[in-house]
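Researcher: Re-running this chain for the archive, since the previous output was lost when a drive failed. Same request as before.
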Amino acid sequence: YFWVTAGRGTLTGAARELHVSPSTISTQLRQLEGQLGEPLFTRHGRRLVLTEMGRIVQAYADEIFALGQDLKRAVGERTSGLTRRCIVGLSDGVAKLVALRLLEPAFRLSAELRFVIEERTPDELFAGLASHHYDVVLHDAAVPPGGPLRAFNHLLGASPVEVFALPEAAARLRRNFPRSLHGAAMVLPARSSALRAALERWFGRTGVHPVVRAEVEDSALLKVLGQAGLGAFPAPAVIRDEVEQLYRVRSVGVLEEVEERIFAISIERRVRHPAVQAILEAGRSDLFAAARA
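Model: Regenerated structure tokens:
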């Protein structure tokens, strides 16, 4: 009663919508105000205007009704066992071209299947998994064991890491590669990423230390900066053709012993969502098959 009255601004308008008498609504509002200990409305002529407490209560009521609508949609979106919505959490360290290749088979399942794809930090993604917000999370590292989140890591595959640069720089860096990277300008992933950790281990083993021009969390921005000439950059070898075509760069070479792994992380051990099943299959039998061969 309160929520409708706050929206309509009058008892008669709310009563008309709810098909009850104005006195019924008035009684309910007085009871609510008595429970809260503060008035929710003040009268301005014939209209009811929310007090400060009324506005606070309305904000909570809006959330409650929004959740109710989400619940109705979630129930209505199940038809013949097929969930019509798939919510995917995407780590900013996962290359967008890799994500596209993994998602494409799921996109083709049904024209009625709607995807919600959210790019978040790992902590936000894991919190979303814990609250069952996400159907699956695509991340470049596994959920560590022994933590508070009980989730299952589905390894989709691993790809060698390749270095790319603008054509002129690539031709120069190919000579004496990978030693040519020592002192060369590079754009690298942020230090929080699994790929950056693997690269730092390789730099330490080989004694090759590039000049880091930028450290970037977002994998797409990393490539854009490389395309702009800021420096060479790493990317998974499985998307070599797409990277060269889209960003107009050329491969310099593959970094031996450096690989990027991609995981699909779910709350379920046995995945039931058909779209998530398609993502798992795309990684295991398609995208990373050549890398394993």
